């Protein structure tokens, strides 16, 4: 078998235009900076359309940081629980940066609630925010992504793979999101569009920060993670950047769990089983 020697090329890689929802939040920021770092490594110019629910100093500050890191960036705003505003966000991105090469649907939230008395309005809100928004934005971005043979990456959750009791419709909404990504991957693969999901585990962000102000809770949580620490936004960001970018050119319809191993830790917690690691022994 012979191997041909690749011809060296000096061509600049195609420009990247990524729309990131929830960009000014914890994981969103991690995603933006990871996308920039990856573009720099690849030698590709990058434009980020950083989406937030409304104008804010937080968003302005992020835009200044993204530009300082080497990207061009624009802020775009809209409430993604409203389908019309989802479509408008994609239009704002296109108006300022041309065709998208990557749609990153990261915005979302959980909230406490027991199914036995969960208000239907709360169920609907959870699905509109975490699931329907991704469908509507992906549909709106589809023509652009066909032209660029681009990617869609959604931030789901380990709660979309394992039931999360006491969190209302969150697990069901993220599970539906994972399946939506798999279905889009099947329907749009022929157009060259790849669609994947990332499932973070416990990640330290503004959403979860109140939990970690109690050192005892933080230590207890760390002790359940085989890798011995709580995830950081950059852990998720690097994974999203990989799946959104050229390194994942043959990956579609997948959900990648980024949780330090906690999801698979359950069976080690059954008392009396040989090989059960002592609780609280996770290395720092
Ligand atoms: N942190 C974790 O442990 C964890 C674990 C698993 C999955 N996740 C998922 O990771 C994603 C990011 O979460 P995070 O921890 O980074 O939380 P975060 O810091 O609160 O960020 C969430 C972002 O979502 C945006 N958002 C919320 N409601 C919106 C709306 N109606 N319209 C537009 N944008 C809206 C917010 O934008 P504004 O600030 O502009 O309002 C916020 O920046 C979520 O999908 C979450 O479900 C997080």
Automatic annotation (TrEMBL):
GO molecular function, one term: oxidoreductase activity, acting on the CH-OH group of donors, NAD or NADP as acceptor
Signal peptide per UniProt: none
CDD domains: SDR_c (cd05233)
UniProt-listed InterPro entries: NAD(P)-bd_dom_sf, Sc_DH/Rdtase_CS, SDR_fam
Transmembrane spans: none
SUPFAM superfamilies associated with the record: NAD(P)-binding Rossmann-fold domains
Domain of life: Bacteria
Annotated Gene3D superfamilies: NAD(P)-binding Rossmann-like Domain
Family named by the database record: Belongs to the short-chain dehydrogenases/reductases (SDR) family.
Protein name in UniProt: Short-chain dehydrogenase
Species, as recorded: Rhodoferax koreensis
Organism lineage string: Bacteria, Pseudomonadati, Pseudomonadota, Betaproteobacteria, Burkholderiales
């Amino acid at each position: 078998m012979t191997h041909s020697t690749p011809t060296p090329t000096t061509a600049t890689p195609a420009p990247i235009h990524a729309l990131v929802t929830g960009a000014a939040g914890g994981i969103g920021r991690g995603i933006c900076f990871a996308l920039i770092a990856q573009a720099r490594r690849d030698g590709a110019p990058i434009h980020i359309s950083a989406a937030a629910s409304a104008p804010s100093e937080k968003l302005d500050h992020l835009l200044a940081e993204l530009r300082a890191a080497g990207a061009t960036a624009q802020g775009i705003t809209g409430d993604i629980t409203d389908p019309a505003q989802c479509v408008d966000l994609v239009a704002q991105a296109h108006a300022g940066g041309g065709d998208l090469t990557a749609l990153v649907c990261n915005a979302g939230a959980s909230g406490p609630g027991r199914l036995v008395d969960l208000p239907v309005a709360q169920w609907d809100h959870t699905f509109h925010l975490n699931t329907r928004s991704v469908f509507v934005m992906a549909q709106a971005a589809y023509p652009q992504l066909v032209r660029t043979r681009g990617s869609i990456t959604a931030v789901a959750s380990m709660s979309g793979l394992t039931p999360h009791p006491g969190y209302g419709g969150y697990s069901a909404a993220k599970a539906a999101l994972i399946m939506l990504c798999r279905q889009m991957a099947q329907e749009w693969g022929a157009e060259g569009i790849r669609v994947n999901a990332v499932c973070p585990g416990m990640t330290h962000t503004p959403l979860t920060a109140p939990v970690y102000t109690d050192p005892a809770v933080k230590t207890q949580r760390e002790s359940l993670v085989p890798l011995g620490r709580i995830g950081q936004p950059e852990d998720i960001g690097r994974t999203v950047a990989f799946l959104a970018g050229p390194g994942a050119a043959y990956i579609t319809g997948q959900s990648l769990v980024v949780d330090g191993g906690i999801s698979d830790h359950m069976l080690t917690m059954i008392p009396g089983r040989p090989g059960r690691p002592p609780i609280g022994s996770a290395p720092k």
